Amino acid sequence: MPEPRYPAAERTDCVEVLHGRSVSDPYRWLEDARSPEAKEWSDAQDALYAERATRWQGREEFAGDIRALLGAGFVGAPAWRGDRCLYMRRTGGQEHGVLYLAEPGSGSGSAAERPLIDPVALDPTGGTTLDSWRPDPEGRLLAYQLSAGGDEESLLRVMDVGTGEVVDGPIERCRYSPVAWLPGGEAFYYVRRLAPAQVPEGDEQYHRRVYLHRVGTPTERDVLVFGEGRDKTEHYGVEVSRDGRWLVLTAAKGTSASNDAWIADLAEDGWERPRFVTVQEGHDAEALPSVGRDGRMYVFTDRGAPRGRLCVADPRTPGPEHWRTLVAADPDAVLMDFAVLDGPQPGRDVLLVSWQRHAISEVSVHDLETGGHRGAVELPGLGSVGGFTARPEGGHEAWFGYTDTTSPASVYVYDARIGRLSQWAAAPGAPEVPDVRTEQVAFTSRDGTAVRMLVVSPADGEGPRPAILYGYGGFRIAMTPGYSATALSWVRAGGVYAVANLRGGLEEGEEWHRAGMLGAKQNVFDDCAAAAEHLVESGRTTPGQLAVMGGSNGGLLVGAAVTQRPDLFAAAVCSAPLLDMVRYENFGLGELWNVEYGSAADPEALGWLLDYSPYHRVAQGTVYPATLFTVFDNDSRVDPMHARKMCAALQHATGAPLRERPVLLRRESEVGHSNRAVSRTVGLSADQLAFLAHFTGLVSAAA
After folding, report:
1. Four-residue CA torsion sign, 72, 77, 81, 82
2. Where is the Peptidase S9 prolyl oligopeptidase catalytic domain (predicted)?
3. What amino acid positions are annotated as catalytic residues?
4. Which of 200, 383, 405, 672 is the most exposed place for a label (fewest CB within 10 A)?
5. Which has the closest alpha carbon to 98: 678, 680, 681, 683?
6. CB atoms within 10 A of CB 143
7. Cα→Cα distances 494→70, 282, 457, 460, 497, Å
8. Which helix (H) or strand (E) holds 41?
9. Confidence of residue 107 (pLDDT cuts 50, 70, 90)
């Protein structure tokens, strides 16, 4: 049988001189997915992937197991508006979560509930997703955002909750838009991009503005409130206090961890022309203000406290010089969220505060006036707590989501009157979860920094075993314990699944994030290599059984791992990745990320980027791991061009035979970077695990 060959891919002599440095880009022609040459190449890659995938055992077994584990479904924390309760839930047989309404006297799962928005009822193909929703203060109207085909280009509509009738919209260009309702449901503040005709070509994803919209009126009559003349990459947050008096506005460039913040007295200046007073401006820190029912301005900030603190001030004098620390920073835990519980009983007013200590959630109770510590809330296990919700009008209860390695997402409620935590709603399904052992281990990175990792393995037996190392390492995103059908299916089949808390995330606060960004980005990749070495040295696996896996910024991590330490891994799955770090800003939402990575327009930053850019580090003749790129045609965040170019480069350079360690590209149409139907998730995960099982030597117990 003749040796299989990779599809032909022309290597051009494209070289660009940037700041005096010659940068080779032989596959730039693959950036344009619409060109005949790129289409022909992609079709050939599709055929190669389809042919190779037939050789992997266990795909159907993994698919069935993942489908069963996803049958747990989920339930989300409620949003209360008087006696009305809104919440998300997905049962095992549903493709997407559904937004439900429970009427007075009912709770989650009761007969009185009814669906408000079911994405599959709107689009039986499963391609439509509910991106966000927010009821008005009285619970009569609901602003919600839908997008189709995975493009995340949300259309904003308003529904009459009582009748289900759409009474406003759709409003276009509302991707990632917050909605801040004014009392009475007459109007709201929101964020919308300028029309394409109003911005330079290529800038259509930027140039946001804050508007006031009156329900039922044309968007042409919306009032511009903020954003004119500011940086094109800025994102805005808006919030109106419960009494409708205070408007809070925040602005951050791209994905920056720092922001400016202002507050306006709407009672004094009116809705249409608020006069903004500075809370924080021009300072390299995060400050998120809100005004409570008690009239105090609460400021959630890492200013002067990289792990976070909670301050209070008078909203009429909102500057940092007036902030008083209410809950001080913890030297070992990161402040994540808080809820004010000011129920009807005098002396029982408290703050509920959530923390992450080395990526594991904790909840504490504090005196509302002084911030003094009153006690801790015992959680169900070593897991992750979601954001708090409480009754807008005040009360003694707070709700939050909870999950851990073996517990599907459910909701708990804390009652401050009696200091008790109880389950409010369980996940709808109860799949058989494998018996696993979960350990948090620590290891030392290249520069001596201690890094942690969560390792999930079969409860019985020892290693070495085929293992997957998963990581992300960026954008302040912490890798915390959670229910994962993919991880559990791998462990049930006999493997080890490890999640590393790499620098770049928020596991140890803002300093941890900054130690893995810009010129310090190499720390992330060193942490990943150290995690792999620890898994080997501790006897859990071997380099011939170890795979690395990640997506988006985690795809960049995988690309760096493969090109910097190919000796450590037998296989890799690289999903929706960034890989050409010289040209990433020219595609998708790339310009939003130069605050995290740096820009090739800056000579110093170009040096950082070229030092680790996976596409530029591919070396001829290197024996690379078996590598699977998974991409999505409607990905409007990270352009699939990264994977196309890297795939071609690796196929040309690798010293490993295609039969032994292939480099493959799997692509999907009509799906994007993030939310997807359950069936799509099952298919993708099963293909990824079957690939990794084949090249790490895992034999599924079910096969």
Report:
1. positive
2. 484-695
3. 552, 673
4. 200
5. 678
6. 27
7. 19, 52, 8, 10, 10
8. helix 36-53
9. very low
In a 13 Å sphere around the CA of 644, the CA atoms on its Cβ side amount to 29
Work out the average pLDDT over 367-373.
Answer: 95
Helix axes 641-653, 553-564, angle to 10 degrees: 10
Residue 11 structure tokens:
């290597």
Please state the separation of Cα 40 from the chain's center in Å. Answer: 33
What's the length of the chain?
703
As a whole-number percent, the residues of the chain with pLDDT over 90 amount to: 92
Task: Say if residues 211 and 273 touch (Cβ distance below 8 Å).
Answer: no
Indicate the average pLDDT of the chain: 95
Residue-wise over 70-87: b if at least 16 C-beta within 10 A, else e? bbbbbbbbbbbbeebbbb
If we measure between CA atoms, which residue out of 551, 679, 668, 574 comes closest to residue 63? 679
- Residue 645 is given by DSSP the state H
Tokens of 555: 């795809």
* Pairwise CA distance, residues 391 & 341, whole Å: 9
Contact 297, 315 (CB under 8 A): yes
* Cα–Cα distance for residue pair 666/629, rounded to 1 Å: 6
Question: How is residue 221 written in tokens?
Answer: 């009559």
Residue 575 has which token pair? 């999903």
288 contact partners, CB below 8 Å, separation of at least 6 = 237, 250, 259, 261, 299, 300, 301
Structure tokens at 506: 């928020």
Band the pLDDT of 634: cuts 50, 70, 90.
confident
Please check whether residue 448 is in contact with residue 515, taking contact to mean a CB–CB distance below 8 angstroms. no
CB 388 within 8 A of CB 361: no
Q: Which two tokens stand for residue 420?
A: 């008790």
CA quadruple 404, 408, 410, 412: dihedral sign: negative
Q: Which amino acid, one-letter code, is at 303?
A: R
Contact (CB, 8 A) for 36 and 638:
no
* CB hemisphere CA count around 31 (13 angstroms): 15
CA–CA separation, 431 vs 64, rounded Å? 12
DSSP 8-state code for residue 330: B
Rounded to whole angstroms, how far apart are CA atoms 27 and 115? 49
* Euclidean distance between CA atoms 496 and 410, whole angstroms: 25
Q: Which residues pair with 251 in a beta bridge?
A: 236, 260
Contact 557, 525 (CB under 8 A): yes
| Contact call for residues 454 and 481 (beta carbons, < 8 A) | yes
- Alpha-helical (H) ranges within 626-677 are 641-653
- What token pair was written down for 19? 């700041």
Would you say 672 and 634 are in contact if contact means Cβ atoms under 8 Å apart? Answer: yes
Tally helices (H) and strands (E) across the chain.
13, 40
Q: Concatenated DSSP letters for 496-537?
A: EEEEE--BTBSTT-HHHHHTTSGGGTHHHHHHHHHHHHHHHH
The token pair that represents 562 in the structure block? 């493969």
Contacts of 378 (CB under 8 A, 6+ apart): 421
- In this structure, what token pair is assigned to residue 166? 């759409």
- Which DSSP helix (H) or strand (E) runs through 365? strand 360-367
Strands 467-470 and 546-551: parallel
Tokens of 186: 């007459």
Evaluate if residue 701 carries a pLDDT over 50: no
d(CA 116, CA 293): 29
Q: Is 111 exposed, middle or buried (0-12, 13-18, 19+ CB in 10 A)?
A: exposed
Which tokens is 163 given? 């009748």
Segment holding 49, helix H or strand E: helix 36-53
- pTM for the predicted model, two decimal places: 0.96
Structure tokens given for 566 = 């190919």
